[in-house]
Design goal:
The structure holds two protein chains of two kinds.
Chain A lengths: L3 E12 L2 E13 L4 E5 L6 H8 L7 E6 L2 E2 L5 H11 E4 L11 H12 L3 H14 L15 H14 L4 E5 L7 H18 L2 E6 L10 E6 L2 E7 L4 H5 L3
Parallel strand pairs in A: 3-8, 3-9, 6-7, 7-8
Antiparallel strand pairs in A: 1-2, 1-4, 4-5, 9-10
Chain B lengths: L2 H11 L1 H39 L5 E5 L17 H12 L4 E15 L4 E9 L1 H8 L17 E5 H7 L6 E7 L5 E12 L10 E5 H8 L6 E6 L5 H14 L4 E5 H4 L1 H39 L1 H9 L4 H36 L3 E2 L8 E2 L6 H28 L2 H5 L3
Parallel strand pairs in B: 3-7, 4-6
Antiparallel strand pairs in B: 1-8, 1-9, 2-3, 2-5, 2-8, 4-7, 5-6, 10-11
Helix pairs in contact in B: 1-11, 2-9, 2-11, 2-12, 9-12, 11-12
The chains are: A alpha/beta, B alpha+beta.
Chain lengths: 238, 408
């Protein structure tokens, strides 16, 4: 059985009188350690797909299993616990908590688990060092650049050693150089730690970094390519 | 997860709005405390006025029926000499009874030879009254001289009506309980202010012996009891009533509160005003916190979505905002307590005086510290402020995560 499996998944939204068909019968299997890009034009259903995989939304119909568990059978608290332990999120607008510094933001998922502050602190500092922000650990989000904030978000997504990291257009608010660095960092962590990364983008240039891409159009999957990525391509953007 | 630290930082995030809310809580808390302190001082003053000023002591023992049927047939409801002695002895056996003193109310006409007017008064044992009054308002003493058996202390408005001064004489004319007319001379040895506008133009004090002679009786109408501790008034009343009835005396015992209708009326009025003010202040404080927290929840909807996505449960969101409401209330109350202390100090140092309704002279405006009311108000404000913050957080925590994340 796949790590994450979607069968005939649809998602509809009500927008006033109209019904928006965000996803129309998606079948998808994701294996552990994959590095996947979901791409397509605006309104194609990328965010809806990621929200369903990340357990922050529920499908209108179809079946989704996460590590073999039917996500529709989970109540709100069970979903929250599963997200906290198994899913990391990287948002387009970083979504750091503004009153917490980088270090505290990174510690947050572990604190939600109830982990001791000492242990959480050690792990948070390790993660910040890993994303190259050891020196900025005590800076508040408003004192950091966009790229630095997204690195903090990556460290936060990784802190609880999740099985999958969902990144919804993580480079949309960044310049191209910073975007390449962020994607490279994600690839590096994927290679090193084996954590599954699924990110959405509408920038086709970033597809050269991924092992597999999923194209969405009008809520339908168009293709699911497997790419063989050379080590050299990754190392161009350390 | 340190909700307190997070709460503090979020409060500091919008300093101006938090400051306005804190000021609303602080001024509300301070105004309740100051008013509670003022009425506590007023109650304390009225208690002293009743127990000491009006010489009511803590308990008054009478034959059952004196206050109703006794008005028609007073002689029947008086203690004779032997009964008065026995009742006094039984009362003094109680370990909490400090003093028992006989009293006799008198009334009739007082005349200076040319002008006559009605009087009401009381026959007292001066040494016992001294023990009851202690150091209470020497200017309202109305003191008798135990060596002068016809000495009387006259209220100053009555003295003005009769145009008498200290050392002048007057005549008291009355009807005895058995229906005989009687008249006795008095020496006005003291002129005093009763403190009560309703009695200051007709009141006089005579010695208990003189009152007995005036009414031609050897007993007493009432026995006034002073306890060691005013707080035990009710329990002592029940115990003493039981004891006296078991000893064969069909008595009723009234507390000073029951006999001082003025105290009860003023207290009821102030209690009502307090409730009114408390309700208004309380609504303002709670609405202020509801508004602040409602805006905070609205502004931080995306943050709520993020926290939920990271795995915070619904109760965590509710707790986060409730803690913020609680912190606002606690900080506001601390600031309010400081304002209370400073304003109280200023008011008490200002030596402000005023004449309350039904009073015949000015009293100082003083504010006490009513710790009990302050603690209750603090708890009340804190609990409701927490609940006021909880309410909008419930709505926010129920919002779909994707909607919260997409909130602009």
């Amino acid at each position: 059985m796949a790590f994450i499996e979607m069968q005939a998944v649809t998602k509809q939204y009500r927008l006033g009188e109209a019904t928006i068909h965000a996803l129309r019968g998606v079948d998808l299997q994701i294996e552990p350690g994959e590095f996947i890009a979901v791409w397509g034009p605006s309104g194609s259903g990328k965010t809806s797909l990621l929200n369903l995989i990340g357990l922050i939304d529920r499908p209108t119909s179809g079946r989704i299993t996460f590590e073999g568990r039917d996500v529709l059978s989970l109540n709100d608290n069970e979903s929250a616990e599963l997200r906290n332990r198994k899913v990391g999120f990287i948002f387009q607008t970083f979504n750091l908590i503004p009153v917490l510094n980088a270090f505290e933001n990174v510690m947050l998922p572990l604190q939600l688990q109830g982990l001791e502050t000492r242990q959480a602190s050690e792990k948070a500092m390790e993660r910040l060092e890993e994303v190259g922000l050891g020196q900025q650990a005590f800076a508040r989000p408003d004192q950091m650049s966009g790229g630095q904030r997204q690195r903090v978000a990556i460290a936060r997504a990784l802190i609880a050693s999740p099985a999958v990291i969902i990144a919804d257009e993580p480079t949309a608010n960044l310049d191209s150089d910073t975007s390449n660095r962020i994607i490279s960092l994600m690839r590096e962590l994927n290679d090193k730690e084996g954590v599954t990364f699924i990110f959405s983008t509408h920038d086709p240039r970033l597809l050269s970094y991924v092992k597999r891409s999923i194209k969405l159009e009008d809520g339908r999957m168009k293709m699911g390519e497997k790419h063989e990525l050379s080590e050299a391509r990754v190392s161009q953007h350390p | 997860m340190n909700y307190l630290k997070l709460g503090f930082r979020n409060i500091l995030r919008n300093r101006r709005r938090s400051l306005v809310t804190l000021l609303a809580v602080a001024s509300g808390f301070a105004s309740i405390n100051l008013f509670a302190g003022y009425i506590k001082n007023t109650y304390s003053g009225l208690t002293d006025q009743s127990v000491k000023g009006e010489r009511l002591g803590h308990l008054t023992v009478v034959k059952r029926g004196l206050f109703i049927e006794g008005k028609v047939d007073p002689e029947k409801y008086m203690f004779n000499l032997a009964e008065a002695e026995q009742v006094k002895k039984a009362l003094l056996e109680d370990p909490e009874v400090a003093l028992v003193t006989p009293r006799l109310n008198v009334s009739g006409i007082v005349s200076n030879g040319t002008v006559s007017t009605i009087f009401i008064g009381e026959g007292i044992v001066q040494q016992d009254v001294d023990a009851i009054r202690q150091d209470f308002r020497a200017d309202r003493s109305g003191r008798l001289n135990p060596d002068n058996s016809i000495g009387a202390a006259m209220a100053n408005d009555l003295a003005a009506i009769l145009n008498v001064k200290k050392g002048d004489g007057a005549v008291l004319l009355t009807t005895t309980p058995s229906g005989q007319a009687n008249a006795l001379d008095i020496d006005v040895i003291d002129i005093f202010n009763t403190g009560n506008a309703r009695t200051n133009d007709k009141y006089l004090l005579v010695s208990f012996d003189f009152a007995q002679r005036l009414y031609d009786i050897d007993g007493a109408e009432r026995l006034v009891v002073l306890l060691d501790d005013i707080r035990h008034t009710e329990t002592a009343r029940a115990r003493l009533t039981d004891k006296l009835r078991k000893t064969g005396f069909d008595v009723e015992i009234k507390t000073w509160k029951e006999l001082s209708s003025f105290y009860t009326q003023v207290k009821n009025m102030f209690d009502m005003i307090f409730l009114f003010i408390f309700s208004i202040v309380f609504i303002v404080v709670v609405m202020s916190i509801v508004n602040t927290m409602g805006m905070a929840v609205m502004e931080r909807t995306r943050e709520i979505g993020t926290l939920r996505a990271l795995g915070m449960k619904r109760w965590g969101i509710r707790r986060l905002f409730s803690v913020e409401g609680m912190i606002l209330a606690v900080l506001g109350c601390v600031a309010g307590a400081l304002i209370t202390v400073l304003v109280r100090l200023a008011v008490n140092k200002a030596h402000i005086t005023y004449v309350p309704p039904n009073f015949s002279d000015a009293v100082p405006l003083l504010v006490d510290l009513d710790i009990e009311t302050a603690v209750i108000t603090f708890l009340f404000i804190t609990i409701l402020a927490t609940a006021a913050a909880f309410a909008p957080a419930v709505g926010a925590s129920r919002k779909a995560i994707v909607d919260a994340l997409g909130h602009v």
